[in-house]
Amino acid sequence: MNIQTDVIFWRLAFFFVIEQEYTIARLSQDKREIWLENRSNKEAMLIRLKNQDLGWAADLGRDVKRIVWNGEQIRKKMGMRKLSLLNIVVSQHPPVNEYESYLKPVLSPQGGKTKVDTLLFTEKDLNQSLRQLGLVLSPVPERRDFDGAEDEAAAYERSVLSHEVKRKEEEERFFHYGKPFFTYLFTAINIILFILMTLAGGSTNTTVLLEFGAKFNPLILEGEWWRFITPIFLHIGLLHLIMNSLALYYLGIAVEQIYGRLRFIWIYLFSGFTGSLLSFLLTPNLAAGASGAIFGLFGALLYFGVTKPKLFFRTMGMNVLFVIGINLVFGFTVPGIDNAGHIGGLIGGFLATGIVHFPKKRRVLQQLAFIIATVASVAIGLVLGFQSGYAALDADSVNLRVQEEINVGNDAEAEQMLKAFLEDGGEPSAETYFYLAFIEMGDGRLVEAEQHLKQATRERANFHEAYFNMALIYVENGQLEKAKQSIEEALTYAPDAANYQELAKKLE
């Protein structure tokens, strides 16, 4: 090989690696071919740099054809929609016959998703080649930078290779700062609590979920603030536990290795809190699960992507964004998923990570800005949530709380909750009126109970329990014909109910 081509080759490599922050994806054993990657440069995401002496133009043509094929395979492997590849060939002399046609942009067959631009660098046409390179990357090296002896090429080579070694060492330290511990601990806690819930009556049992601390707006409004945190460790059903445990295992290990144990605890718990907070603001339903905290881990990785985009996209970026997108779409399209908790956790994870930043690194003003934004967001959320009161609750949430009070004999408290809900402008359901009637029947207020049962059946025509209770009221009042009509209605919607059949026989 010619000394001058070595200087050109390694000066270009120096330009790409050190000045343009490309990373070496592959280096041939003879150090005559380098593949470089920088996903932030859409015009030349990949660069293939080759030092070879060209003879005939056909040699260049075959080389371009091979690079197009290789580029298309790389694009598919990387999961990218399109790929731009810059193919640079350094040669002592250009081919002896016509070769310009091979320097035109080439698209891969069957869709043209990979585009290859080829540049030929020779000592004779170096100025023109630099101008062409400047259309893709700038500023390009000056012409005099390529003048030098053999030791100049060796110096560029040493700089490039030592820079790459240091980069890999720094990345290794970055991705392995901490050893996972709390990922395993939180997973174990989730499993232990699931077993305890199962033994207590089942993880899908509403009473059990409330006893173990699930997010439930009425109880939070009554002052049970810990329900912003405790739902993180509870799961509704075995599949829910398995899916979140797998997500926690893979994401948790990555985040704990990058940020360390203490930062991981802060990010995970705060994300769980913000997930519960946004769920409290937007969804009145009973909720539990580690999903908000897990999305917070996604938020931590997004912060990594925003602050270190080149490293992020070179390592895990596209996979992280794809998984986040899939989960959010899944949450918006599948009923029963608390997507507010997911989004709240994602935002919380990003904010929490911005406060602590990366280990052994500080950005005081930026971290202060994150603290202010976080405190303001949480304060606004809490104020809005607690000021909304019972008017912000839906009938299902109130009915569920009322049922719990009735089950433990607190009928007066249950009635007060129902009346407060109605007075604050809540939209009652059939069950709302049914519970009111149930309490009134227990106190002997049969007239009020009858009216509320009728309202319940107007809300839901097939409410057979309401018809049955009306029949009991009519029997108590001696209105047997009305009792017969009511029990017949009940049997219409629940013909196999033994207690309904028994009452109907007595009324015959």
UniProtKB/TrEMBL annotation:
* Record Pfam families: Rhomboid, TPR_19
Write down any Gene Ontology CC term: membrane
Q: Which UniProt keywords apply?
A: Hydrolase, Membrane, TPR repeat, Transmembrane, Transmembrane helix
Q: In its keyword annotation, does this UniProt entry include Ribonucleoprotein?
A: no
According to the UniProt entry, its GO molecular function terms are: serine-type endopeptidase activity
For the keyword Hydrolase, the answer is: yes
Q: Which residues form the Peptidase S54 rhomboid domain?
A: 223-356
Membrane topology type: Multi-pass membrane protein
Which PROSITE patterns does the entry mention?
TPR, TPR_REGION
List localization entries: Membrane
Annotated PANTHER family: PRESENILIN-ASSOCIATED RHOMBOID-LIKE PROTEIN, MITOCHONDRIAL, RHOMBOID PROTEASE
The protein here is known as Peptidase S54 rhomboid domain-containing protein
Q: Which organism is it from?
A: Domibacillus mangrovi
